[in-house]
Write a structure and sequence with these properties.
Layout lengths: L3 H15 L4 E6 L11 H5 L4 E7 L2 E6 L3 E5 L4 E5 L7 E7 L4 E6 L5 E5 L2 H11 L9 H9 L5 H6 L9 H11 L12 H20 L40 E5 L2 E5 L8
Antiparallel strand pairs: 1-6, 2-3, 3-4, 4-8, 5-7, 6-7, 9-10
Helix pairs in contact: 1-7, 6-7
This protein binds a DNA duplex (12 and 12 nucleotides) through helix 6.
Length: 268
DNA sequence: TCTAACCTGATC
DNA sequence: GATCAGGTTAGA
C-alpha cells in the first residue's frame, strides 16, 4: 500500500500523539509479523517513545532504548486509537491509556527491534538507497550512471532510490515524458534533469496532499490522502491522456502493471 | 532477470 | 472461480 508519501503521512500524523509517551503494555497476536525475539513484549513495555523517523518506506519508532523498524508492505497500518479487529496483530498500550495498533490484512508487513543504532543503520544501508527529496542531482546521476535496463525498474529499485513504488513511478515518468520501458543507459543529460525534477515535484506534491488513498491507505489518525485525485496515469488504463487525449496504454514492466501515454512519453 | 511466494479481500 | 492489489525476497 504505502510508498514514501504515505509513510511520511503516517509518521507526521503520529508524531504529536506518540512523542514523549511511555508504552505500558505490548500484545503480539501474530508472531509471524515480528522478527522474533522471545521477550519482545516485555522488552518494549516501559520504553518511552522519543520520536519517529522514515527511511525510504521504512518507519522507525525511536525509544529511550533502541528502535522499532516497521515496514508496512502492502496493507500494513499503524493506527492511533484504531478499532481492534481480527487483523490487528500488535497492540501497544500507552501510559495515557490510548492504544497504538499495527493492523495488516495481508500480513506482509514486518516489525523488527534494534537495540543498536549502528546495527539498524547497517541493515537499512543494505536495503535503501538515496532519499528522493534529499539527494543532489550529482548523487542521483552517479547512482543511475552505474545502472542499465528499464527506467521504471530502476525507479522501483529501493537500493537505488528509497521510497518510490508503483504509483509514483508511473506518475513520475508521465510527468517527465519518458516511457517506463525506456533504457536508463540511453537517457540524455536533459532526460536525467527532467527525471530528477519530476521525482522531487511528484513526491513532494503527494506528501502535501497527504498521499494517495486508492483503496485503504489511512494515516496514523485514520485520515485518507487526496493525491489520487491528481493521478494522471496510475489506475487510468484505457482512459484518455489528460495531455493529448489519446488512449493510455497498459503493460507489464518490471513485473508490475504499468500505465503510460505512448505519445506524450518518449522511448529511449 | 524473471517468477513464485507470502496473505486476504474486492471485484470481474 | 479467476484475477488483481501502494511490496519484498528467495530461488530457479
Amino acid at each position: 500500500m504505502p510508498e514514501l508519501p504515505e509513510v511520511e503521512g503516517v509518521i507526521r500524523s503520529l508524531r504529536p500523539v506518540l512523542t514523549g509517551q511511555t508504552i505500558t503494555q505490548v500484545q503480539i497476536n501474530t508472531p509471524s509479523i515480528v522478527y522474533l525475539r522471545e521477550d519482545l513484549e516485555l522488552l518494549l513495555s516501559g520504553l518511552k517513545i522519543l520520536g519517529l523517523r522514515r527511511r525510504g518506506k521504512y518507519i522507525i519508532l525511536d525509544f529511550d532504548h533502541g528502535s522499532l523498524l516497521i515496514h508496512l508492505r502492502m496493507t500494513g497500518k499503524l493506527l492511533h486509537q484504531g478499532e481492534v479487529d481480527k487483523h490487528s496483530h500488535i497492540l501497544f498500550t500507552l501510559e495515557s491509556g490510548e492504544i497504538l495498533l499495527y493492523r495488516d490484512v495481508r500480513k506482509f508487513g514486518r516489525v523488527q527491534y534494534f537495540e543498536e543504532e549502528g546495527v539498524l543503520q547497517e541493515y537499512l544501508n543494505r536495503r535503501v538507497g538515496l532519499e528522493p527529496l534529499e539527494m543532489t542531482f550529482t548523487e542521483f546521476k552517479l547512482a543511475l550512471g552505474r545502472k542499465k535496463g528499464d527506467i521504471k525498474r530502476i525507479l522501483l529499485d529501493q537500493k537505488v532510490l528509497g521510497g518510490i513504488g508503483n504509483i509514483y513511478a508511473d506518475e513520475i515518468l508521465f510527468e517527465c515524458g519518458l516511457q517506463p520501458q525506456g533504457k536508463v543507459e540511453n537517457l540524455t543529460q536533459k532526460d536525467l534533469e527532467n527525471l530528477y525534477v519530476a521525482i522531487q515535484s511528484i513526491i513532494s506534491n503527494a506528501i502535501q496532499a497527504g498521499g494517495s488513498t486508492i483503496r485503504d491507505y489511512r494515516d496514523g489518525l485514520g485520515k485518507e490522502g487526496n493525491f489520487q485525485q491528481r493521478h494522471k496515469v496510475y489506475g487510468r488504463a484505457h482512459l484518455n491522456c489528460v495531455q493529448c487525449g489519446r488512449t493510455l496504454v497498459k503493460n507489464q514492466t518490471a513485473g508490475r502493471t504499468t500505465v503510460y501515454c505512448s505519445y506524450c512519453q518518449k522511448m529511449r
